[in-house]
Amino acid sequence: MNYVVLIRIFILLNVLVLPGLAQDITLFSSTPLGGEARDIHIYENHVYIAEGEYGVEVFNISEPTRPEFVARYDTPGYANGLFMYYPELFVADGDSGVRIIDAYVPFEPELLSVIPTTGFADVITVSCGVVTIAKGENGISTWMILDYTNPEFLASDDTPGYAGMVFGPCGSIYVADGEYGIRFYGSENPFDLTFVGGYDTEGTAVSVAGQSDLAFIADSTNGLCIVNTDDPANMQFLAQYDTPGTALDVYFIFPYVFIADGEGGLLVFNVEVPSEPILTGQFETESPAIAISVWEDQLYLVDQNILYILGISPTGINNTLSELPAEYDLSRNYPNPFNSSTIIEYQLPSASNVAIVIYDILGREISSFSRQNQAAGNHQIIWSADDFTSGIYYYKFISDGLAEKKAMTLIK
Prior knowledge:
Number of strands: 36
Oligomer: single chain
CATH superfamily of the largest domain: YVTN repeat-like/Quinoprotein amine dehydrogenase
CATH architecture of the largest domain: 7 Propeller
Mean pLDDT: 86
């Protein structure tokens, strides 16, 4: 894998006033890109941008007014989507499959493995140790990544439309499936790929975001569509807003929805009442707006050729983005009792060194996980117990001198 060091910075300071928001949105900088942007993902001080045949560009954004070019990852295919599951970067690289890259040192990327795909690897998401890949006309597939150098195939589904976006927390997946709207997959076992229900947007669904009971859909024909998903098998229409451009991407942070609207630029909606979305602001881009990501109190937007960094500080947005755990906490594993695998979640109030150690009932250590300087927030690991017998086991959370232990039950 090659990387190139260049410096390309163009800064434009401006202020965009959004009616109905508590404060202004500030345009910190505008930076030209080397290729044509397809997707964007943020982790702490770095932004990663998929740029088709140009591969992936990485910028240091510790100073939002002066983003600094760090590296270019020259992938062999067509970098169309990416997802950071720190420190691994997953790149949907078209016909070349999904590339798993160790990006712990952003300017020295190391290729760990490649997930082969049937068809074009379009977009990916990673949650609870499972990679879900949208493959266009070839549907979706899921892979386990307990070992990043040896991903394990789990399941696939040949969706009826064009699977162009996947999104979802542990155990559930939403798929934007083109002219067939959205599809929902869910199971108590996060490794099952079980179709539950869908919703036809009567247009072309290209992106989806949301929460447990709501889905916000970017439909390139009909704009923003909002659906109640409280019962995934029987989704209910709530609202639709015909955007002026071509809705290509959507990002949700209560109570706001952000739409990359192609030639319509960036649109901001207040969805505190989901059945009554209110357009509260618009930002014009130089070329069609493609993708959005948010980190802390800043929004990162790419059009075809430019990275925009916007400061977002309305009261409703800022409070949500700044909300971090107040203390260290170890949650109950789920499912419990479990068969084969279980998820262990924990919370960090600040960046910390973390270890999770698994013991059998006799107190013998049988497995462990560790992370150095893991970011504040909510995290999870998956423990696979395929090689162990039924019984009671213990998991211990250790972080910067703190320790907590809980029991779990394996039933086979």
